[in-house]
## 1
Amino acid sequence: MHIMALTQPCPRGWLNELDQSSRGYTQAEFWKSLARTCERGLLDAVFIADIMGIYDSYKGSWQPAVQHGVQAPHDDATLVAATMAAVTDKLCFGVTWNTSLQSPYNTARTFTSLDHLTNGRIGWNIVTGYVKNVEDNGMGQLLSHDERYAQADEFMDVVYKLWEHSWEDDAVVRDRVRRMHADPSKVHEIHHKGKYYSVKGPHMCEPSRQRTPVLLQAGGSPRGLAFGGKHAEALFTINPTPEKAAESVRKARQAAVAAGRDPSDVKVLAGVCLIVGRTTAEADEKYRAAREAISLDAAFTLFGGWTGVDLSAYDPDDLIETIKSDGMQAVIKNFTYVDPGRAWRVRDFGEWLKGGTLAPDIVGSVKEVADELERWMRVAGVDGFMVQPYTTPGSHEDLVNLVIPELQARGLFRTEYEGDTFRERLTGADPRLPQRHPAKRLAIGSGRT
Amino acid sequence: MHIMALTQPCPRGWLNELDQSSRGYTQAEFWKSLARTCERGLLDAVFIADIMGIYDSYKGSWQPAVQHGVQAPHDDATLVAATMAAVTDKLCFGVTWNTSLQSPYNTARTFTSLDHLTNGRIGWNIVTGYVKNVEDNGMGQLLSHDERYAQADEFMDVVYKLWEHSWEDDAVVRDRVRRMHADPSKVHEIHHKGKYYSVKGPHMCEPSRQRTPVLLQAGGSPRGLAFGGKHAEALFTINPTPEKAAESVRKARQAAVAAGRDPSDVKVLAGVCLIVGRTTAEADEKYRAAREAISLDAAFTLFGGWTGVDLSAYDPDDLIETIKSDGMQAVIKNFTYVDPGRAWRVRDFGEWLKGGTLAPDIVGSVKEVADELERWMRVAGVDGFMVQPYTTPGSHEDLVNLVIPELQARGLFRTEYEGDTFRERLTGADPRLPQRHPAKRLAIGSGRT
């Protein structure tokens, strides 16, 4: 079972009295403490969400996001990863980075540097931009949803060429006698010329332990799923029930096969929120406090950011069928699946979103939560979980202090770290991408120097 | 006296047997060790050089840079800074970041994040891009030298507006009762519309301890000096003698005054290489070994990167007067100043450059080196030194273990850290920019929310 702990360099859950993220996210000690907790729990990785821009669909303004502390203000995820990595040895890091807003040449350097500094403990959560106001802030032009994925596909080609095909493994020789630090005949230009990018190379960096970081992705749309099936080594899905998650797992494995990969080349992790008590009553009390800290405005702000739909145009008691938006249909379908007979209203969305995520809550005693995770593994066939926090600290401490020991006692979770790199931990195989991954099948341009 | 230690995430001095940078620069432990050494020595800061692209003027190719390990391969400076910061409390960091290759909106977030995570220990070494091949790698179009500075000037306006004028100090209220994380009426759009940039804002990040990082700069051209006089809080100069450095100091102070600032608002640090022994003989032996590790090809590669001049078109014995290039004249003037009667040849450049820097060598016993630093302070009127390494580890350990105690014994260097932030350490005043700095005098657009 693979378990990653989600976090984000912004206030998150700040309305809950137990949460310290609103002050903590700007402080190194907050991140170092979280890193040590997750490493103590032998978690696979910390997954660091990131976003560029401030959500501004709800009420047509960025003000609700700022007022309610909805992923705003927000710091940089790569620097948080470097901070956490500096005080850990085994814990891995999934770092969010946006193909729509960055150049592939620079991106390749950033992730090679991270993989160097962590000795292979880095993954990349591949996202494409979707906050409108990045355009107003001079961060490039956003494309349509499908074209964004076409652009991202080409972006991947470029970084793969730089990571996998530019420097040979034995290029760096450090030969003082011949005065040769690296052999230029083993360093290759990539000569990429495509629709969106033109990059000559070579890569600025020598190969890191993993070369290509572990590739992570969350997109759930048909185009996003095809992208994930082709590129991703781990996919994150949000589903209300394990039965529904089983569909996501099946689709992900199909998408991998369609891209010429093995079905198991894509691990699927289910997003969940765990509310754990030493007793059921303690868990219920925690859950009650967590639910009290839900703000409808915060939820609608987030929802607007995701879908472009401004729910301020509706009454909280409106039935959701009255909301006409293509962007919302997938969410609505997923959302109502859990209770299709119910008359879902706008306010139900807000409560479901909890100001942060659509991931289902698993509430109970240690035993009950472990039972439920076991059921998810069995029914959904997922490879593990992406645990989303209600509060930091709090949620991940409960995971590590309460849930992990129970999973270990049941023989479901590791009792020591295996593998040094993120890819070894995830796949049990090599630190490098397998030969059947599309990155390996690319050819670089004719201009081998 | 202010002392900063220069380093760079690449092989540097690798031909010297004592140097470990070629393997070390990719490893967190190498950086953590250097950070601890510099903090133990109470240095003001580590200054992390950076470059995007691979030097390619010499022989018209990037191959010499790769072969000789001349700032290639090269990792990312911001991530190295975060790594070093995570294991120190007081040491500060000057991080190189290029206005030609980045967007101001993203830049503002990167440095606010670094300043958050270090609690105010961050400076920004402002550079403009100059390696031709970044264009071939899709990193934008390079402008002419003077236009680059015009662009950089506007870039500074944008980041100043984001850092200094977007979020008021008391914008973040974290009021659970009113469900208000931040008061949007105290968060302002900046509405910047200029020749190069259009950025609406607001800043994505809440203010950090220093708001604007300490502004560092090294440009020596007339346009560069005007830029530095306007923006920089510390300027780095490379001069062969303290008498020549006195000119740089005078010009820097004049440039500050011309920009409406106090002469002492710009600290001037002289670049030096220290080769220190317990005895003069030990120092001489170290120096001999260091000189042996000099490669003419490496020096010419570096020189080509700086000036665009391909010295492979010349014989090493050619007189430098025969080289016609505007870009080289300033360097030649500076270079020959130390011994104007000598017939300087092309190979002399290479030896002077030592594969890494034009900074003068100060070679001797602890006492002799300390005497010479005292003379530089007195004759040049500099505020301190930027110490450049021959080897890592080695040079900075000698600085901390041998030179610093001698300077302390003479009452010339601090015996404990004063001030928590970089700006307090440098100026003795506030963590924030003084009111007379141009950043403070900017007005944001009319659209206060």
Note: The mean pLDDT of chain A is 92.
## 2
Amino acid sequence: MDGSLGRGTPRRRKLDLANGRVDLSHGSGGRAMEQLIEELFVSAFANDALDRRDDNAVLDVPPGRLVVSTDSFVVSPLFFPGGDIGSLAVHGTVNDVAMGGAVPLYLTAGFIIEEGLPLSELKRVVDSMAAAARDAGVAIVTGDTKVVERGKGDGVFINTTGIGVRRDVVAPSADRARPGDVVILSGSIGDHGIAIMSTRESLDFEAPILSDSAALHGLVAAILDVAPGVRVLRDPTRGGLSATLNEIAGRSNVGMLVRERDIPVKPAVEAACELLGLDPLHVANEGKLVAIVDPADAGAVLAAMRAHPRGAEAAIIGTVTAEARGLVQLDTTFGGRRIVDWLAGEQLPRIC
Amino acid sequence: MDGSLGRGTPRRRKLDLANGRVDLSHGSGGRAMEQLIEELFVSAFANDALDRRDDNAVLDVPPGRLVVSTDSFVVSPLFFPGGDIGSLAVHGTVNDVAMGGAVPLYLTAGFIIEEGLPLSELKRVVDSMAAAARDAGVAIVTGDTKVVERGKGDGVFINTTGIGVRRDVVAPSADRARPGDVVILSGSIGDHGIAIMSTRESLDFEAPILSDSAALHGLVAAILDVAPGVRVLRDPTRGGLSATLNEIAGRSNVGMLVRERDIPVKPAVEAACELLGLDPLHVANEGKLVAIVDPADAGAVLAAMRAHPRGAEAAIIGTVTAEARGLVQLDTTFGGRRIVDWLAGEQLPRIC
């Protein structure tokens, strides 16, 4: 206890954002943590709920059902072509809420910071989060900061939990695909995973491969406008398109038949996959979605997606079948047919 | 891609919960992750929202305002006298929601696991979380699992985000204390921090000091029953009672005058604090709260708290003053008066 410096005497110096580093005192619950929160987080995320500065946020939500999702982000490196852990932590959770058919409204943010992280890097991450949240129309309303000793973390891990509201008529879920439904993919696959992997491996391509990390709530709104009864919405992140289609096939107890030639893959991504021995179907995306719709809605949904910037390359890639339930089959470019399985082991650790 | 083993052929072996360890494949988004989620998390947390197994939960909430809080838990060691990181991750967030005057309803859970963690330890943590959530009447409705390489984490970190609902007449907040208000503490301070510290330092006391980690929503409900207009509710966790009182003094722009002799500290905790050179006012609690109430309500609130098992030792410890705004003053047992400041540096890293 130190009686010499009361709060009435605000003599403390500002955080040294250019040269300072996070130390254990920033997670202590004491004055240093208060300062980090004030000068770095609150100033970047400013909104009414956060400014109240209680350990909770009090929120108004419009009528409808609440849709909630949580994700922890451990991507390595923290900064990559096309994004960083901050923007990714917003996009990833906004998208999981949007895939529930909801309008994302609020995010919480929990930071686990490794002692020694330069404050300048933390500030870049926080500013990027704030910008991504503004762009997506969500407010970061409450948060938490922990600091772990050097060697017990890796720079910074971020958890975000998202809250949104959906209309009662909307109820997409992985168990609602039915035989005859049409499978639509919003654009090219593999961009995010390959962007991360090529940064890690210091691969140089003629054209750099950028992550597709992006918020998809606007694209979802465009789909719901024309097809509020959309059966399934999913973003194929970890595990790639193959995991997403397998999960839907299993949960809905249906088969899936997709055509390789209709699945967009950028030439540079394809080349990198060959070099790295990866299958684009297993590589993560952070700005793409799969919509499964009644065949009567397919034309309108495809047109609505193509009219949206995040769905310009949208394509019908296959159909839901009554045969081969629980399996995903691929008609290959070479005229064969094979089963597309889940990723069995580990392919790309820490891509999100 | 491996066409030899479709989902139609469920030949996989169950997780080896006795001798297995978490590896990177458990965070891959592929089959191993699916298995970990099914056999460990879903089976322990089972509820309708989680069983849907989408990347989000769809929730019904009763009328009222939404109160949301998030916390990441990085406590070391994972298991300590009186609790573990699993029960703590439930209690901590349930309490932050309850301090907003809300009934906690739902939790999300995000796990960041270090490669190599024994599955048996993870199962103990998850079972403890499930039990704590059942006891607190909250459902764990959606989650996320990430795995980081050995040396990039520390066993397991857990983020929980809590959602509750409060009645419109209830609005406790740290900026609502007024001169003349009464400060009530629900019980003895320092138990949690000293339980962690003595485990880490392998201190042996005649009577082991147990963490006070507990859910306080029931105690809050008892307070709200008699005083729905309670001004401030706060649980003094990191930074201890001193941080909580200083924050309220600053946010409400009032002074605080508290009496050392009325603040309960267990003799064993006091002895440990002397040995370790700690001030109990700075040591974390995980099952105590501070209520600041109108003097007209103080008697009823104190009686209601004492009638509840979590508030049996509740005591009036001081008053809110118009003097010395922004400062917390302590009348010491020895007849002096001194300022109680925030913790300045780091005292007890990773106690929550």
Note: Chain B touches chain A through 106 residues (CB under 8 Å).
## 3
Amino acid sequence: MGEYFKNVPVVKYEGPKSTNPFSYKFYDKDRIVRGKTMGEQLKFAMAWWHTLCANGVDMFGSATQDKSFGTSDAMDLAKAKVYAGFEFMEKLGIDYFCFHDRDLAPEGRTLEESNENLAKIVDVVAEQQKLSGKKLLWGTANLFGNPRYMHGASTSPNVDVYAYAAAQVKAAMDATVKLGGHAYVFWGGREGYETLLNTDMGLELDNMARFFKMAIAYGNKIGFDGDFYIEPKPKEPTKNQYDFDAATALNFLRKYDLLDRFKLNIEANHATLAGHTFQHELAVARINGAFGSVDANQGDELLGWDTDQFPTQLYSTTLAMLEILKAGGFTNGGLNFDSKQRRGSFTLEDTALAHIAGMDSFALGLLIADKIIEDGRIGDFVDKRYASWNSDLGKSIIAGNESFESLSAIALKNGEVTTNISGRQELLENIFNQILVSGV
Amino acid sequence: MGEYFKNVPVVKYEGPKSTNPFSYKFYDKDRIVRGKTMGEQLKFAMAWWHTLCANGVDMFGSATQDKSFGTSDAMDLAKAKVYAGFEFMEKLGIDYFCFHDRDLAPEGRTLEESNENLAKIVDVVAEQQKLSGKKLLWGTANLFGNPRYMHGASTSPNVDVYAYAAAQVKAAMDATVKLGGHAYVFWGGREGYETLLNTDMGLELDNMARFFKMAIAYGNKIGFDGDFYIEPKPKEPTKNQYDFDAATALNFLRKYDLLDRFKLNIEANHATLAGHTFQHELAVARINGAFGSVDANQGDELLGWDTDQFPTQLYSTTLAMLEILKAGGFTNGGLNFDSKQRRGSFTLEDTALAHIAGMDSFALGLLIADKIIEDGRIGDFVDKRYASWNSDLGKSIIAGNESFESLSAIALKNGEVTTNISGRQELLENIFNQILVSGV
Amino acid sequence: MGEYFKNVPVVKYEGPKSTNPFSYKFYDKDRIVRGKTMGEQLKFAMAWWHTLCANGVDMFGSATQDKSFGTSDAMDLAKAKVYAGFEFMEKLGIDYFCFHDRDLAPEGRTLEESNENLAKIVDVVAEQQKLSGKKLLWGTANLFGNPRYMHGASTSPNVDVYAYAAAQVKAAMDATVKLGGHAYVFWGGREGYETLLNTDMGLELDNMARFFKMAIAYGNKIGFDGDFYIEPKPKEPTKNQYDFDAATALNFLRKYDLLDRFKLNIEANHATLAGHTFQHELAVARINGAFGSVDANQGDELLGWDTDQFPTQLYSTTLAMLEILKAGGFTNGGLNFDSKQRRGSFTLEDTALAHIAGMDSFALGLLIADKIIEDGRIGDFVDKRYASWNSDLGKSIIAGNESFESLSAIALKNGEVTTNISGRQELLENIFNQILVSGV
Amino acid sequence: MGEYFKNVPVVKYEGPKSTNPFSYKFYDKDRIVRGKTMGEQLKFAMAWWHTLCANGVDMFGSATQDKSFGTSDAMDLAKAKVYAGFEFMEKLGIDYFCFHDRDLAPEGRTLEESNENLAKIVDVVAEQQKLSGKKLLWGTANLFGNPRYMHGASTSPNVDVYAYAAAQVKAAMDATVKLGGHAYVFWGGREGYETLLNTDMGLELDNMARFFKMAIAYGNKIGFDGDFYIEPKPKEPTKNQYDFDAATALNFLRKYDLLDRFKLNIEANHATLAGHTFQHELAVARINGAFGSVDANQGDELLGWDTDQFPTQLYSTTLAMLEILKAGGFTNGGLNFDSKQRRGSFTLEDTALAHIAGMDSFALGLLIADKIIEDGRIGDFVDKRYASWNSDLGKSIIAGNESFESLSAIALKNGEVTTNISGRQELLENIFNQILVSGV
């Protein structure tokens, strides 16, 4: 099978002063941070599609990156990608991967053939897993690329499309279980509408819920005891997508009583497209008991589409890691690099350099988050800020013992409120910066 | 009490050809449209704050509009506004109004005095209601203007503020019931956060839910059997507001089991700030059984703040009326003009001209929506588009009789999907335009 | 050559009451509006790329539309597109077209072959022009699709790319002249930067200016006496494009002394991506003496990328036509449909229905603009609003006879300003609506 | 005059490990960085309006911050602000300030009285300057707050307003010269339009240019030899402002031949509102020879209005300082904190803590920028990237010796471009992070 990433050496931790581009300056896999190794805290995963398939095509230009891996036959290419992918994970020290059915194996002329293609490649992957110990973080089905899904998959107006989508998810769930995946993801890029003039939103959402119930039933049948995730995204490709953001997905899950088996896969760039910070979406997932996994990337807040950049913004990675630590860290989920090298970063070396940048940035995020917790100034401030909720009155309200009448009487007695304290946002931001630049 | 809007005559329907600025060209109150009068279908309400209090102040400039109504004493002004308001409703033929406690009566030196001020003015309003037959659409409390609420009201970190807010809502609910209001609104302009660095989002939302439960309990006690509404808004003044959009509010209501007494008050400009169309938010409310009332205005999609313009965009008013008709029309709710005349439209005549523009635009929205329904081309297209859900397979899926296995078997037998039909968006938009310009 | 758009009949004007989808309800080509036929006022052009090449591919999905025209050989397809294109123009009654070199003819294995391919197809087009009388509105070169342009064309850091781009534009200008085009367009989709970390913006812009000077020199040599246009776009595909908007392009043209030969091609969707209305960009072009041509489409203001929808928003088309009429109408330019049918509108009938929607919408824009001018209320209001600039003082300021000292003396004498009059925005919007729905 | 900022001690540099909130961790005024002291490189200025006048009012709430300085008389307050302001600058070690006429002294009942008020306070300021050595960075006139300017000042449709604005600027320029200011700023918050329906944009811009020419003439007369600055802002309060961004202002300055006396004052938050990064706007100013001064703050890219936050984002401050160093550093300009403490940071201590945060963040920006330059990896990469422009062909193009014909011949000979090199964005971002966290 040869070597595919020839100019990419094995990448090792060399510390903050190294100028070797092919080294980790901050990601030190076995270093213990908050009781686990960095590897366990971060659980990096390679995204099969971007790393092995994406070639720099955009809406205005053709491929700049050669991901042909020396072959033009579709099934040969699929196999080459398996070997290339495991070589890449090995060289970079990445333990997990994620896939869509159709970036693993090519769509055949018929559904039967597609299923066979998938099964064949799954066998090759399974073999490589055995050799390497690499693990599947999650699997999913591509229900958006083929023209048949142009008006939706589980929300299609066309019942034939719905059946086709069911068949495809069935096979993708089989593959996920076979490869030992502990999670299965639904991203609904075509589940939404282009115009309400031609759309019955109520029926479409009812049908999506029916689809998810079938997925649970099928999972139970085949022994899948992992998480299902919804991955929210507000728009693109579709004008309005039904899983707009975390809260919207949660309303759906609650409405249709799906919350016991479903959690959320939060993507940084999807958060910003919805008008939220990455941290916000993680927090919403957490307080609703639905934190599952993360698609690690970043967008450009001045651009209105999904740029899927490798994450290098340390404010974002640090605040994300603070939230993830608050949520207790990852169980079934992890940090999947749903990130693509820039179109102008067109070499296979860039594929590695971009992962290194993302991994070092999340490693820094973890290390700085840890230092913020240890420093204690920010945490103490927050505790003090909410201290009145530990007072007798605070406890009584929380216990449900108060009413508008009782509180009104208290307020009339109290007179004007004189107990507010400054929110100190600028001071807190300054402390954050001080810790950020203070060395890790 | 004199006449306050001296240059504003009684405004009457004069038909589409009139060039009299002080006439309705399209709002013909008693004309029957879809089984009700236009007055009943539209239920226009005057917003006490914008119409009687707003004076053109913005973040960079002082008042351009004189809403002093001839006095500078706070309580005299409050009374003058009652008379001015009823004069305005009378001249314009508007039957409803909405208020915040603090635009009805001034805040006093103490909470007690504030409550007394409110009670006094409520008596004056009640008297005017008796004389005129004008009705209260809904009431609310201003829990955002006073500095005590700078960090939130029902989500304040400070339990004293929470108690104060409870007292204020209690009095505002009393006023609402006294004036015969069938709805009470919560808009959480300060319920949210400026930075997550200093915020405990989980506790704050729990507390907000506790607050709403007390409101329900108090309502039950004082015989309020109307609707409670949450009015979603994503941001402004606060960086991130907890009631971001309809779906976010619904997730909250479901999580805390409040959906049986709460519905939504959808504001057009808040919808666009959240990245949605007005129609979208109405549709989300409708399919979740939570359509309540409307704050009728419009934003400027190229601007990132709440411009609260009088609604004059006919695409928006028509699509909104289509949704409202689908939802069965208004019960307790109506169309409240949460709209302010432009700062440069500084005369009291503009106050009237702006309302006329808004009322004619919604009247046109209703008339065009009616014509679209009568025309039938768009509705028929949608029915046909979803026809496969009435097939045996469609019915079986809806009945819950299918599984991934059964659907997969069907899909394998079917082969590739060949039954998709064009979504015809451009044709539908063209039909819409054809009807729009075809005369009402 | 056969018939390509088999289900598309010849489309004729049938008037506002027709329910025939394949008819114009408002575009009546020979009707005289403001002294010219509608055909002359609107000068519709078919965009070769969208109409004949685009197939519904987006960043998340493959082709839904079949534009293979019965062949898979690249040159045969290029020829078929010529016949299909002229058939389409004939059936729709469109007199003009626009092209990029590479959607006219395929890129060859070498530049030489590419040039030959282009020359061959240009001959076929020229022949069809002779038979049909159809005219070229403008030509351009695709300097963004090929990977060689990944870092820019005339702003590439690589001088070899610059030379290649020069060669390509030379050939495209030859083709434009050969086909009788009166304009040549530069759209700089890759002229900009992804990150300033690796970019020398000053050098890149100097080089772009040098490129344009060579274009002028070459144009003079080959007898091209038409307009050069810059088509501004702020972003997409590149993060920041140098021709951000009309004003940015004008600053560039002024800095490098290019304004005598360059004008602007304003695209509606590019305007909104830059945070402007379509009308604004047209007005900026007009008052700078640089109004050239229009790419007629529309975006979705809630989406952050170029959706290139067929224009159906009548506020936008009407305000655009008002500006175009103010600019004296088109000379070398026209209305080019840089618009693509929605991905879900996947049939060749939709290609026609979408053009019909766009043409009827601009026809309505023209007719309503004409009625607004005839009505006179809006124009009269504006004249009166600026009347003080015709006073003695106004004239003296305009004549340059006043100074801060003289004006200060006048202001001190005048005392506070009492002569402001309301801007009456709401009234004007209401008059606009009244005319909009009053029938054409 | 007493002490105004009683709980604010003198703030000194204590180094990166200090946990004293009232210390600089990074701003070490006399430390030499790139040949100048940090004080000279950064030239921090206090903004009179935010620091001494702003009180936390926003569109939905009243003041949270007490900036009454112990008095309620307008002129006494103006004087108190002078003493408070100089005390604040002294304690914080800030050497410069900036003002609007109306935040220095209150508007009187007449223009005459306003002028007298201003002159009186200017005398008090001048006296304090003499005592303290503090300097005026720039002055400006508030031409946006008073209702008379509701439709613009130098672009008003009303010639009386124009004269009044001239009088006001004359007095503000007098004050600027009297206080030794080397720059005078025009920010056109009302110079723009709310709707083009009532606007003559061409006339308004001509008038604005006339106004600026009078300013130059008057400046020459009174011996003002400093810079005039335009401060671009795209919108807010006005829907569309004529000085949209740097490029738009430059087009205006070029069109009316004003570029020899005018430069730009770039504000970070205005940049982001226009869809640009702060760095972009600085770069545009620099390459057009128009870099003047900076309004140092930051916005929130998920919010659509001017939040004027104290700058704490180190990516932004570092990239800004890199551009400023490239431009040769400040001459007449400096870093003016057009930043306001958050509404919830309501104490006078927060006023200081917020400035400390901003100053430390820009100090870090300077230090990190210096380290990036010293490190050399990024700079070397850029040099190498553009190396082909130093080849013979590159030089020949730059010298103007090439044509489309000569370049086409070269390209035909070259064949396909094989000389592109990766843009390495991810690597460069990673190097940036490595330096950012490596200690200063």
Note: Chain A touches chain D through 52 residues (CB under 8 Å).
